[in-house]
Amino acid sequence: MSTATTHDTHHAEHQSGLLRWVFTTNHKDIGTLYLLFSLLMFFVGGAMAMVIRAELFQPGMQVVDPMFFNQMTTMHALIMIFGAVMPAFVGLANWLIPMMIGAPDMALPRMNNWSFWILPFAFAMLLSTLFMAGGAPAGGWTMYPPLVLQTGDAFPFLIFSVHLMGISSIMGAINVVVTIVNMRAPGMTLMKMPLFVWTWLITAYLLIAVMPVLAGAVTMLLTDKFFDTSFFNAAGGGDPVMFQHIFWFFGHPEVYILILPAFGIVSQIIPTFARKPLFGYSSMVYATASIAFLSFIVWAHHMFTVGMPLTGELFFMYATMLIAVPTGVKVFNWVSTMWRGSMTFETPMLFALGFVVMFTIGGFSGLMLAIAPVDFQYHDTYFVVAHFHYVLVTGAIFAIMAAAYYWLPKWTGHMYNETLGKWHFWLSTLFVNVLFFPQHFLGLAGMPRRIPDYSVQFAEFNMISSLGGFAYGLTQLLFVYIVFQTIRGGAKATDQVWEGAKGLEWTLPSPPPYHSFETAPQIK
Amino acid sequence: MDSGVQAANRRVLGKLLWVVAGMFGFVFALVPLYDIFCQVTGLGGKTSATAAVIADVQVDEDRLVTVEFVANLNQDLPWKFRPEVVEMQVHPGKTYKTSYYAENLADHVITGHAVPSVAPGNAARHFKKTECFCFTEQRFESGESRDMPVYFMLDPKLPAHVQRVTLSYTFFDKDGA
């Protein structure tokens, strides 16, 4: 780790060509790499979703065989979670945290480079399993034994790619914590930090706490398969249910890792376009911290049906419902921020508003799933699929889109095409609801998830959902066009970019210099 | 970056790496903790692996509980395995006998090990077996078959709302994967 400290931060010039990107230790370069990698993975995972929706377009088996269908659902989840959403947030953290707290760069630049460059290898390994004998992992992204132990040659590749993703996330998270703890400009007290920085600080602690848990769990799978241990093997005295406990002890904090930075983004954007300071700043901070704490004591609500005593079901049910309180605080704070503000509806604001409305829909269906007695009906149905896609697509992904539009003029120095941006928002919003809303009805009617075929009474809603899916997928190509158009040129962006924008990053030129704050700004 | 900040960065980095190592260790500590938790609470559905000693238990003649018997084979084991009866009505506190039939269909010797499980989980602690083929390994010559007895008793302390208890055995190949 001592290599991180030998880096000389004072040379402004950098290598040209491809090697610049390989050797870069600059937070903006690495942020860009993360974001572009995430965009690429978004389309790889999206292509897999298209295969899934194509197969589900009609009842019966049409497009792919069931084994490949299972590979698609498993890989779609792994790639979207670890390849698209998490790297996008880390990319945003890299770009924005140093600029927001008045630091020249991230605290550990060499480690920063390393944590990014592990990812392409991890995903090359994971994707290579598609071409192996036995195919890619098909037991679901949750990797439950004993099913996952039947994975063919792909199994060790799955485990090691999860290890690599974990190492990358842990290093990224450590870097964020060290940067925020040590590199704030004079006068930037903790309670003056922008909310995006706060949510990332808490997210980073969650990552540091739970990614090692996932690493341990998959290591046990590996030794169960190859070294005759019996962690999850009943014949040797182990218990497969224990895997579910350990996995969801990681898994529930993980879903907040996927959403807390989104809360931060929306808390930056809404005040800008409502032209009012954020309502209830400190309650936002405390709500984020409470959500993070509660995430550690609710894991078993993912496994109500494994056979738990009544006391256990009740505890996990009430603890889960308790999360609605801090989350509600946040939603009401966002609404109160807009109350009597002079609002304008540029693309970032549209995506942020879409986030508030549709994330809340996902929150409500989550509340329904938290009710233990009815969860037995919803468990493993399309209702669950609809729920987590509302919180992850119209939640996390919409927030990432909002962030991209909001900060793109700062990053590139050019304004994006506002008309196309609005088209992108409205088409996405329309089609994402056509895609996921009918899945609520399918789930309530009993359609199981992760199955390539279904009874004919589910045909209409599946066809609607698939059509929405194809259209939503195509619409995202518009986003790629807008981003690259903005990188190549466009109207010159001012330093402040948005009339109501407040914060240190808007005091820098657009695009900002290679090193953000060579001399630390003084915060009043 | 001045060296003061760099030193501070290294200190925080070091602390965080300890947290990472600690959490990684914590997962492995969870394995024995999980077993202890299940033993204390009886939640895992695991029954005792050794014979229970029954002394001085009052038979509850007023209460009848249904006990179901289930036999499973792990997928690769070429055996026939079934309970003698699938269901019994029992009084808590009284000792009963039933048996399971197993036959080795393979052309070689197989030593199997049966793992019992009781559902619902909170009945597991109250399911006492005084004699069971699951306490020892079972060696079967090729084509050999036999009936294996189980002596059991339901503890009268079995929670009142439990009216049906399922005892399930899964036979695993001791030497197989």
Architecture overview:
The complex is a heterodimer of chains A (524) and B (177). Helices cover 66% and strands 0% of the residues of chain A. Chain A has 524 residues and is mainly alpha-helical. Chain A has helices at 18-23, 27-55, 66-101, 109-128, 154-182, 195-226, 240-257, 260-274, 281-294, 310-322, 324-338, 347-370, 372-378, 382-412, 418-444, 459-488. Chain A has a single domain (23-498), classed as Cytochrome c oxidase-like, subunit I domain (Cytochrome C Oxidase, Chain A, Up-down Bundle), CATH 1.20.210.10. The N and C termini of chain B lie far apart (56 Å). Chain B has 2 domains: 1-41; 65-173, Ctag/Cox11 (Pfam 04442) (Sandwich). Chain B is flat. Chain B is 22% helix and 37% strand. Chain B is of the alpha+beta class and 177 residues long. Chain B has a 5-stranded mixed sheet, with no helix packed on it. The A-B interface holds A 1-2, 4-5, 9, 104, 107-108, 170, 174, 177-178, 181-183, 208-213, 215-217, 220, 231, 234-235, 237, 239, 241-242, 245-246, 249, 307-309, 312 and B 1, 5-6, 8-10, 12-13, 16-17, 19-21, 23-24, 26-28, 30-31, 34, 38, 41, 43-46, 74, 113, 115, 117, 119-122, 170, 172-174.
Which structural traits does this protein have?
heterodimer; A: mainly alpha; Cytochrome C Oxidase, Chain A; 16 helices; 0% strand; globular; B: 177 residues; alpha+beta; 2 domains; four-stranded antiparallel beta sheet; 1 helix; 9 strands; flat
What is the fold-level CATH name, i.e. the topology of chain A? Cytochrome C Oxidase, Chain A
CATH homologous superfamily descriptor of the largest domain in chain B: Ctag/Cox11
Task: Give the C-alpha Rg of chain A.
Answer: 23 Å
Low-pLDDT segments, ≥5 res of chain A: 1-11
Number of strands of chain A: 0
Q: What's the N-to-C terminus distance of chain B?
A: 56 Å
**Spatial separation of the terminal alpha carbons of chain A:** 35 Å
Question: What percentage of residues of chain B falls in helices of 4 or more residues?
Answer: 10-25%
By DSSP (H or I, 4+ residues per run), the number of helices of chain A equals: 16
Taken in chain order, the helices and strands of chain B follow as: HEEEEEEEEE
Given helix and strand content, the structural type of chain B is alpha+beta
Classify the beta-strand content of chain B into a percent band: 35-45%
What number of domains of chain A?
1
